[in-house]
Design brief:
Length: about 200
Amino acid sequence: MVKAVAIIGTHGVGKTTLAYQLCSYLKERLFNVKLIHETARCCPFPLNEDATEESELFILHSHFLEELKAVAEGYEAYVADRSPIDPFVYFKKPAAHFYELERVALKWMEKYDLVLLVEPNEEKDTFIVDSKRSPSVEFRNYIKDQFRLYVRKLSPAVQKRLVTVNSDDIFRDFKLTRALEGIVGRLKLEDRFADMAPV
């Protein structure tokens, strides 16, 4: 059975960095793992404060397809940079189908063996900005609060599989190593690295 990890949280806090690091950590231990990239990056519709119904639909369905492909391709594990609830967090104007799709997205969250919520360092107002995400601190904090609300909507079973990671832990090597060890431990994967013969 494929192991699935979703990384959620507001933008600019290090989710993609954590996703790459976690995949690397698992590959070093001889696991066949796939990184599922954030599908918003290939969305042809507006993002951030200007997200539309089309944006929501494109991102949601693209994400479903990428996860299904990972399962069909026979990976032992995949790490998803984002999750199906993300479009709903960013989309401010519910359309007619919003609540039906939201229920599907929340149900899909039950597939994950682990959900990592990356929280920003509360002491910092600066964050990582790129060409796809809004540079507004106010909007970033609004999204952070929306994720906290959505975490409460998750089923009790999913909430038990949720781990909060502080943004600062991702960018400090010694803290990141400790965080990765804890994450992999929660996944209950056999550590094949320990069984490797010395070169």
